[in-house]
Structure prediction request, 453 residues.
Amino acid sequence: MKTIQLYLHDLKELLEAREFVMVRTCLRDIPPVDLAEAWDYFTPEERSVVFRLSNRARAVQLFEELDPPAQAELVAGLQKDQAEELLEEIDPSETGRMLRGLPQPMVRHLNGILKKSGQEIVQKYLDFPPQSVGALMRGRYFALDSKWSSKQAIERIQLTTRLRRLEETHLDTLMVVDGESGPLVGAVSLKALVVSPKDMSVRELMDPGPTVLSPEMDQEEAVRLFAKYKLRSAPVVGADGKLMGIVDYRDVYEVASAETEEDFAKMAGMPLSPAEDSVWLQTTRRLPWLVITCIGGLGVSTVVKYYEGTLAQILAQASFSPLIAGMGGNVGSQTATLIVRGMATGEIKAGQEAVTIVKEIGVGALLGVIYGCGVAAAAYLFYGSRYGWELSAVVGLSMLFSMTVASTLAAGEPFIFRHFGIDPATATGPLITTTTDLLSNIVYFGLATYLLL
Prediction:
């Protein structure tokens, strides 16, 4: 945003003064991604002017950086011939993403423009579920015939690839098909084509076993495959083996970022909520998740009331209760974050559940021993002269129990949730923290009653 911040005030003044030549000059120095971030600073009229004054390549990049509602607003504000020209430049998959979730009147209006610009193909992207690879794949790619020589392939690329579409043509990895409309048979890099002998065939150069995605595959699975094999692009192949499109690493990165934000929101015990939501909407979204914490808190209060006699006789216990419960909750959150992340990235594979759980329980127990000894020593230092070693033992053993139980719950619950078809990210946050608090206080006050009274 640094560039747009430098230009924003001047750009607004130039737009108001209708100094369009100067506006065009300013726009040359502002990256489209920065302009998209500042889009809300402009009025609808100013947005239309800014878009029209950008050169074609930058206008297309700006359009692809905008959110679908902003894209739809922009297209609706253009004249029909301008809208048709713009949509011809945009990958059909991008147009499909724009249409998802828009009001039906807007969709009908845009569909009319799409038919005139020959983009009926957009409908095939809308037929796939929003979270599928089919909805993510791009339709503009370059496929090579396996029978071509490397010289023929390069010449075809040069003849058919337009400079203004260079960024969206995806030339890093080229797909190889058998004949003009045959099945996918491999993939080859542009580097290999450039350095190979001119008469070497594409079939000799290609990798015959590229990582292939199916259009029905979940986007999260595609993210795992891209991370595992360090892919820059991957072909999407239908049941008949024919190439349907490709998925680019930039789109996968956006999916991964969105999933990470969603998982962290769930770990905090609430669904992902955009900043523009109203106070009432955010309140109603948080309310159900906080019920777990509230009920658990009432349970802890009931435990404390039950052991009121013990607490009244030995007030020193009160100073260690929040520490024991808090450390257990922290360990549980750490463990759950590692487990959920490992499941999301594919680092924890099917069949490794038991080993992973045992390992995390061991880590939690070892941490409990270390911190239990440290806190027990502190308790003896503070209250040893008054209560002897018994209070130190209660504090130390309770710390060990709290951290071990928290690790056990945090390691096991994500796998249990996944088994029942529930998103594992929901297993953390309030559920683990509240359960740990409740059990830790029961053990803490129970041991105190047994050893100190």
Q: What stands out?
A: The longest helix spans residues 353-387. The chain has a mean pLDDT of 81. The beta strands are 143-145, 173-177, 184-189, 233-237, 243-248. The CA atoms of residues 312 and 361 lie 34 Å apart.
